[in-house]
Amino acid sequence: MRWTPPASGGTLRYRVPLDRRRQGGNAPGNAAFVGERFAIFRGDAAFPVKSWRRARGSTLDGELAIRLPRNWSLVTPYLPDGAGRLPIRNPGKRLPRPIGWITAGDLGTRRDVIAGIEITVTAPRGLRMERIAMLGLLRWTLPELVPELAPGKDRPPGARYISIVAAAEPMWLGALSAPNSIFVHANRPLISENGTSTVLHEMVHVLLADLDTPRDEDWIDEGLAEYLSLRALKDSGTISAARYESAIGGFRRRGAQATSLRTASSSGPVTARAVAIFHDLDLELRKATGGRQTVATLVRDFLEADRQASLASLRAAAGRSLGRPPRALRADAVPGLD
Fold first, then answer.
1. Is residue 287 part of a domain?
2. pTM listed for this prediction
3. Do both 179 and 223 map to the same domain?
């Protein structure tokens, strides 16, 4: 449907089902759930907008209000103002509508400020969820990551407030980021057996929410999230250098199966190939510049300039730092893109 608000204002009322199964993929489970004790869903599903236009000179403001069952509490991607209202402030130029993870119910929440970002970790009470351990992991790793990505002095990238929400069955056994927020299944380990961290991977996605990449080059988004999170684990001492190298070797072996990186949804061998590419590019930059330039500082430059990060622009930016074309981004290293 299409709605045109009257010049004098208007009200649109509708009903939308929020409880739904996850579509596609190999892992079964819900993408959202509404039950008697708690609810968890994305604002995008409750306030769906396919496209929108506004008159020249007009402004848009959004405010979220939710009526809750008695004794329920609410956690959203938005901080309340002094009057207790929830003004919607989304990254970049996004429409001011709720688009992140929202949870409500009998909840337990822990909060901390880490690397200049207020972070909350929330899950239903009674659910085994390592809230403090998760904050501990982020306290070790984010100080290694945020300063390199920060596009301005003392200003964290992406967000000043990030909400992490968790649940168990019937939710999907995975994790997914959205602006200012992350969902992670309560049974996901903080650090996996291969040395990677799901929650830190999604945290990088939130920090890089304003990074513009081509629609068919999702290897850049997923490769950066996995590589930068893995590098932060190593640099913080959370994992050893030997375990880091072992993880990179595993990505390199799996990535050898990728025949093309051109895709709108990177996963499996494509993402693994991307991790190896960014690892090799990082080594090139560090060696040529004495550590002054890294993949993280390269990404920060794209954020500061509000430029699209494509293969071509990454090649050009890295080439200026190296004084030559980067070997890590040569045609045979990035199959299917030239």
1. yes
2. 0.92
3. no
